[in-house]
Design brief:
Helix content is about 35%, strand content about 0%. The chain is mainly α. A two-stranded parallel ribbon has the order 1-2. The two termini are about 40 Å apart. The structure holds copper (II) ion.
């Protein structure tokens, strides 16, 4: 992890941010206990002060270009504070796209990690590392989660969709808008409790989620030299967004955080999600496909768990969540419709099997959970089910055969401004997802 020699960038070491599953037990527990140390002592604690900062600055840091650089700086500051407790700590990220088709089965919810859903009635999380944690803001309370299903969650947006957003957005703020809502906001929304509020850093899952969002931005930046320092749009105060724009409430300008290389960190990809070609086009796995993998004209809904092959359509965001994020409801609905078209088009490709769809199989989850036994091993020994598709006896893998991006997807998506489907399942779920406070 460390690099003793000064790096060409002037870094003495490059911190490698890794997917939380690929940390050893020792690394993960070091991270957890440092967070708990920030939460100890008289309230408001150091940990609480981050929550307060996030909440106070929320109005200009969500729904504007600042969203990505501000959260980059925010979690970086948090990481540096943790490093004062233990210099070996590097923020992990949660690649929720990997778990997107059944997020409730993600290992982060384990009883020895973050714990699971809040209990019925008061939404208090009663297991995991933070069962006894009492967030201070807006008033002292138990840690709340309130998943938007019944001990399940809506599907999230998948690896294909992240890749699709990255490869179709030409301008910085176009990418930012598309990433912030729907995909980023929907994870907040579906976890519920603290997460769909501006006190969201009360839930330590916040830092995992935002490290992934930061990773997605850094990948977009790396796609082209033109993207590397791209920054545009309009700030909350109406001024044009520039690299010299200050970050609200933080001692940095955008230019200070635009390049993660200069910040001396990098993201180690999580191999499980890279089952597509360079452009994000999916790979066809079999001819003929298993019967479940044949497109029947409808993408499975957000809470469906039987279909192992097709991408589920996540639920729509609540109006209240969109408005809290300073976004325009009509614009987000347009983006949701665009992503729904993309999901349908992926699913309709002949022989298409989502690389994420199979991981809701209990046998895969078991395999994932059992890989962190050796504290010294780290990610190098992590065995990723890189051939998830071949696990189905009926699917004869043919990873060499690629299909291109669905023809016309971009054009079609861009002109599509119709309202998203009124899916009764989505509406029902939205009601369940009422904010807990
Ligand atoms: Cu935020």
């Amino acid at each position: 992890m460390t690099d003793a020699k000064p790096h060409s960038s002037g870094c003495t070491r490059i911190m490698e941010r890794r997917e939380i599953r690929t940390l050893s037990d020792k690394e993960r527990n070091t991270y957890f206990s440092a967070i708990k140390q920030l939460q100890s002592g008289a309230a408001p604690t150091v940990y609480d002060s981050y929550v307060s900062l996030h909440w106070k600055m929320a109005n200009s840091t969500h729904g504007f270009p600042e969203f990505l650089p501000w959260h980059r700086a925010f979690i970086l500051d948090f990481e540096r504070t943790l490093q004062k407790i233990d210099a070996s700590i590097v923020l992990p990220y949660w690649d929720w796209t990997y778990d997107s088709q059944a997020p409730e089965l993600a290992p982060i919810w384990r009883s020895d990690w973050y714990g699971g859903n809040g209990r019925p009635g008061d939404n208090c999380v009663t297991d995991g590392q933070w069962a006894d944690w009492r967030p201070f803001y807006p008033q002292p309370h138990c840690l709340h989660r309130n998943w938007d299903g019944n001990n399940t969650m809506s599907a999230y947006y998948s690896p294909e969709i992240t890749r699709y957003l990255q490869t179709t957005a030409q301008l910085y703020d176009d990418f930012r808008v598309r990433l912030e809502a729907p995909p980023h906001a929907q994870v907040h929304n579906s976890i519920g409790g603290e997460m769909p509020t501006m006190f969201s850093p009360n839930d330590p899952v916040f830092y995992l989620h935002h490290a992934y969002i930061d990773k997605a931005w850094s990948e977009w930046q790396a796609l082209s030299p033109r993207n590397a320092r791209a920054y545009d749009g309009t700030n909350a105060d109406g001024t044009p967004a520039k690299l010299s724009s200050p970050l609200t409430g933080l001692p940095y300008r955008v230019s200070d955080v635009i390049d993660i290389g200069q910040l001396c960190y990098t993201y180690i990809p999580f191999p499980g999600t890279h089952d597509s070609d360079e452009d994000g086009a999916p790979i066809a796995h079999s001819t003929p496909p298993p019967s479940d993998a044949v497109w029947n004209g409808t993408s499975p809904n957000a809470f469906e768990r039987q279909n192992l092959y097709k991408l589920r359509a996540p639920i729509l965001l609540l109006d209240s969540v969109i408005l809290m994020n300073q976004q325009i409801v009509g614009e987000v609905r347009r983006l949701e419709a665009l992503l729904r078209v993309a999901i349908d088009e992926f699913n309709s490709l002949p022989g298409y099997i989502s690389p994420a769809a199979l991981i809701n199989r209990p046998d895969f989850v078991k395999r994932l959970s059992g890989t962190d036994k050796d504290p010294a091993a780290g990610h190098s020994s992590y065995s990723v089910p890189s051939t998830t598709h071949t696990a189905t006896a009926t699917a004869t893998a043919d990873p060499g055969r690629e299909i291109g991006r669905p023809s016309g997807m971009r054009e079609k998506a861009d002109v599509r401004v119709s309202k998203p489907d009124a899916d009764p399942a989505n509406n029902g779920a939205s009601r369940v997802a009422a904010k807990s406070f």
